[in-house]
Amino acid sequence: MRAVRIHRHGGPEVLQVDEIPAPVPGPGELLVRLRATSVNHRDIWIRRGHPHPAYRVELPAVLGIDVCGEVVEAGPGVEGFEPGDRVTANPYMHCGRCRYCLGGRFQLCPVFTVYSGTYAELFLVPARFAVVVDPSVPDEHVAAFPNTYITAWQMLVGKAAVSPADTVFVWAGTSGLGSAAVEIAKLAGATVIASAGSEEKRDALRRSRADHVLDHHAADLVARVRELTAGEGATVVFEHIGSATWQRSLELAAPGAAVVSAGATSGDDARFDITYMFVKQLRILGSRLGTMTDAVDAARHLSEGRFSPLIGAVLPLERVGEAHTLLEAGRVIGKVIVKPDA
Ligand SMILES: [Zn+2]
Hints:
By secondary structure, this protein is of the alpha/beta class. The chain has helices at residues 41-48, 99-102, 139-143, 146-159, 176-187, 199-206, 221-228, 246-251, 274-279, 292-303, 320-329; strands spanning 2-6, 15-19, 29-38, 61-62, 68-74, 86-89, 92-93, 113-114, 122-126, 130-132, 167-170, 191-196, 212-215, 234-239, 253-261, 283-286, 311-316, 335-339. It contains eleven helices and 18 strands. Strands 3, 5, 6, 9, 10, 17 and 18 form a seven-stranded mixed sheet that branches. Strands 13-12-11-14-15-16 form a six-stranded parallel sheet, sandwiched between helices. β14, α8 (246-251) and β15 (253-261) form a beta-alpha-beta unit. Residues 94-95, 97-98, 100-101, 109, 111 line the site of zinc ion.
């Protein structure tokens, strides 16, 4: 079977098509045939050789964390899956044995792993992290789902407990994570203010379910959010940008707001005025990926057709390097999808 692997770290050119033996499912594993996957910033950081231990892999490595595939074979002891089932998977794989997992606080598992291996025609998925998705949902939507929607679900539903009373501010509402947040916050009945940095992206946002669309480069962004919220600010701030936005996140937050963060794509070195935090009594919530409860709950809405992920481009598997380049350039609107037969 064909797999796209990296044998060394570097630019998109290190992603190379290799012919390798098909894997054999062991106990508790599913053998899955790829229907589609998508590229994430995590893939790019691993490809480049990011120094953080969380991005260290053994080479050669097959990257890709978003599963949309069809079960070919279930390994020994697997129940609840049949060949032909269309599945996705939660990329956050907790250990199930540590003191946090045993206490049901799976999101705090210190020895979790992040799934990797979808840049291949066939790959293995631990069955306990797989979820069946209704065949009516397009492959592209399933491939755009796991890393973004499960993460945004944990942030908004799990951490911020978003409700119809909330006004949620979403930075970069056309990004993978941002667009998932817009849809989930609307599903929860909240009012959504979303930002984007170009007119083309703001047009895409106006066609989405966001109630208000703002330019995040505008000097009066914070004032505009206050205007839209009767002077109070947003009760939930959806942060995933980092250094470029952190200070303004605190400024545009309402008193008592939740500022929930799951990433720092613009850089993780932020200076901010601590006064905003204690005077407004903000709740700063760190979040990372999502639990199986998040995965199952969010996947139910995916199966029932309530999510329409933004799709920016669809490329064949052997051109995954180009898919990386598109995401790195930051100009594509929506997820970059890779399919074996695109
Ligand atoms: Zn654990």
